Amino acid sequence: MPERTIAFRIDEELHKQIKLRLIETNKTLKDYVTDLIKADLEHKSDSTAQAIKTKTVSEDTETFFNDLFDYILEKQAEREKGKKKE
């Protein structure tokens, strides 16, 4: 797969912390940053999937209660019509 270059500047203190972390994890900077990005994207994907699932359940629940409310109002109206005819 073709590769792209990403270049950015960070402050000196953060750079030192990253260098120490690379030593601790025995990773290259490229591998470290790539792993962080992949983890973030996977987390976002999981969060998005959960949000979609929650939204679908919420929409289904809302639809159910709206339909139930409409049904109840309809039955009450029918009952009121029946009382007026008597």
Question: What attributes does this structure have?
Answer:
86 residues; mainly alpha; 2 helices; 83% helix; 0% strand
3D structure, described in words:
It is a single chain. By secondary structure, the chain is mainly alpha-helical. The protein contains 2 helices and no strands. The protein has helices at residues 12-25, 29-85.
Strand and helix map with partners:
Blueprint: H1 12-25, H2 29-85
Task: Write a compact overview of the structure shown.
The protein has helices at residues 12-25, 29-85. The protein is mainly alpha-helical and 86 residues long.
How many domain units?
1
Average pLDDT, to the nearest integer? 81
Number of strands: 0
Structural class, judged by helices and strands? mainly alpha
Helix content: over 70%
- The general outline is rod-shaped
How many helices?
2
